[in-house]
Amino acid sequence: MLKLQGPTPDLQAAFKTIVDTKAEALLVLEVPVTLNHRKQIAEMATAQKLPSMCPAAYADGLISFGTSVLDTWPGVPVYVDKILRGAKPGDLPVQVITRRYLTVNARTAHELGLSVPAELLKRADKVID
Fold it and tell me: 36 falls in which pLDDT band (50, 70, 90)?
């Protein structure tokens, strides 16, 4: 596992470590530092011929998968309203987003020299050509 920190992480050093350890793929987690640098991370991964998987809202890598912030935000005002009206946050029910989105970036697959199985393409919510 490689950790990036701060608003301006040293991505060059991070990718040198990734290459030196002979990583075969890259999983990009949904945290602020990676979200802010997602395009650069995806470009560097592709340049190193490294397949990458990113959070669902960002189809910058080979594959993105997960929930959408668009499914999350509509519930936020409801919770804020309840809390401002006196509800205790610990007493509010936990809501779980169950819808997951899969995006396959066929353009990136081509750049990596990979073929994406037809079954995966069929299951994708979105295919980027």
Answer: confident
